[in-house]
Each structure stands twice: as structure tokens, then as C-alpha cells.
Amino acid sequence: MKSKPGPLFLEQRAYRRRRMADAARVLPVLGAILFSVPLLWGQDGSGAALTTKVMLYLFVIWGLLVGLSAVISRKLREEETRSADNQTQSKTGV
Question: Transmembrane stretches, by residue range (predicted)?
């Protein structure tokens, strides 16, 4: 009878880096969806949505997307420098 295989070990740093890279890939799709939301406003027969509300919404969403992309890129850069430092330490034996 075969025994159950043990849990697959994934290094935590590599896992986090992959999830951050996935988030960076999804961010443009999320932005496109959020930018298209104002197209749905004002469909109840009362006319179009107010331009000021739409522009405020778009500006806030744009700011959030810029902030999210800055956080994601900073995390990716930190992980990259850590992995580079670990590789140089393992090569030098320090």
C-alpha cells in the first residue's frame, strides 16, 4: 500500500515573490474593469452621470492603482535584492 506523499515544501520567499508577480499581472485587468464602471452609471433613465462624479471616481481609482503598483514593485525589488544577496553569500561561503 502506498503512503500519502508529504506536503510539498515551497520556500516562503519564492512563494511571496510569485504571488506579487501575479498581483502585478492582474493589476491592469483590475484597472480596466474599474475604469469601465462609470459606463454603467446613469442607465436608469435619468440621464448620464454627472461628469464631476465620474472624473472624481476615475482620479481616485487612478491614484489607488498607482499606489498599489508602487507597493508591488517595491516588494518585488526587495525580494530580488534579497535573493541576489543570498546567492552571493552562498557563493562566497559567508
Answer: 23-42, 54-72
Cβ atoms of residues 18 and 80 within 8 Å: no
Mean pLDDT of the chain: 83
Per the structure block, which three cell numbers stand in for 32? Answer: 480596466
Query: Distance between CA 23 and CA 33 in Å, rounded?
Result: 15
Residues 57, 38: contact at Cβ < 8 Å?
Answer: yes
Residue 84 and residue 20: Cα distance in Å, rounded? 17
Sorted by where each begins, the domain ranges of the chain are: 15-84
DSSP per residue, 62-76: HHHHHHHHHHHHHHH
pLDDT digit string (tens) for 67-79?
A: 999 999 999 888 7
Give dist(CA 18, CA 79) in Å, integer.
Answer: 10
